[in-house]
């Protein structure tokens, strides 16, 4: 059975902007699923709707067969990593405070050990523990955002363009980190990117979106072999043809 | 014909922690062509671009043996003369629309400001020209965008607004700092087409600063690869993907590929010797 099941999801913002229209998708446990499309296609909005950051106007989202309840147990199962590590960390909280806050909220003890372990897991030295975000580079910050998302040991990570704010070499490091963590912890990824090469590298299946609608779902092999059925998916692929090199 | 020639450019910051050399002896010349500058963040590519406009604030210092634009020595011009060059002759598209547009001014007013002040156009004429500039960068609903504040635009729209603003005075040299990194591939292709047209038809010179090597390889004519404030390799853009220098090769190898083998991506080797 699918771990994430989205049926006919629509998101309409106040003011009438229809960001997502009747999108259905399902992601199996331990699968890595990608959402691609141009900006404004609604791909990030789907992640935000799962988290409760965007209104679900109609349709349903089920996690592990249960209709979504956004309470503490949800946070322990599903976590999100945002695009811009410069904006997603509290500028006046040390890494220690950022990483231990979810533990305090969920009443988990042993914060000391868990924070040090979390830093080590994402490849940051323990000496960074009492630093502030402005003392870190973009790649280091994104590592902290990943560490924070993993503090509650969730099954599902929602990744919203996790490397598009980073340099190529730093992107490689962060993608390697995500792939390793997924293998070690059996995580399920739902990942948004506008870079087809990143999605191809990370994901088993890809959903192409345009204007809030699902256009075409492609297994990874079909993407690499350019076996798409719709014109839009093909044009997106052709615009990214240099990513094959 | 050489539009810009830079010899031994150095940018130095005297900070409390000591002297930081952001650019260390960069030389290049530019004709009416597309010159790409690539490198990691911190390699000095943005500082090189800003130096041409002398847009580096103290404690930063710009030094060069020569920096000549269209027969004028940029190092010797007064601040007033520089101001006359910035915009009409040399324009720069900055990296981040979030920080480069005025957040409390409508987009239309920002686009029209230069037209009214510099070109002394009336309100209606300035407005018409601003709308035409937005249409030229493929903004679908220019009248709405004119009335919007920057926070109401997506990153890609903001980026296109900045490009439109810089192209209004028809500069001879455009320095574009990551002009398309906030755009998705389809819009990116449109913006590149606009820039390409300006180089071909109007003979504009373009310095295209980017960390996207594949994009630079297919779009530019020549490429400078920068590392730690120095140019480590200069080559024709068509040869970029077969670069010889280990640093350039490293930058290429750490990119994921469509249809790649999904093995962990190789890290980037850095060797301080390369920047000597």
Give an account of the 3D structure:
The complex is a heterodimer of chains A (245) and B (276). Chain A is α/β, with parallel strands linked by helices. Chain A has one domain (2-84, 154-244): 3-Layer(aba) Sandwich (Rossmann fold), CATH 3.40.50.300. Helix content of chain A is 36%, strand content 25%. Chain A has helices at residues 43-51, 72-77, 95-105, 111-121, 138-150, 168-185, 196-202, 220-224, 231-239; strands spanning 2-12, 18-28, 32-36, 58-63, 66-67, 78-81, 156-160, 188-192, 205-210, 213-219. In chain A, the strands form 2 sheets. In chain A, strands 6-7-8-3-9-10 form a 6-stranded mixed β-sheet, sandwiched between helices. Chain A has a 4-stranded antiparallel β-sheet with strand order 2-1-4-5, covered by helices on one side. In chain A, a hairpin with a 2-residue loop joins strand 9 (205-210) and strand 10 (213-219). Chain A is globular and about 50 Å long. Chain B has 276 residues and is of the alpha/beta class. Chain B has 2 domains: 28-54 and 74-89 and 173-276, Rossmann fold (3-Layer(aba) Sandwich), CATH 3.40.50; 97-170, no CATH class. Helix content of chain B is 34%, strand content 25%. Chain B contains 10 helices and 11 strands. In chain B, the strands form 2 sheets. Chain B has a 6-stranded mixed β-sheet, with helices on both faces. Chain B starts with a strand and ends in a 23-residue tail after the last helix.
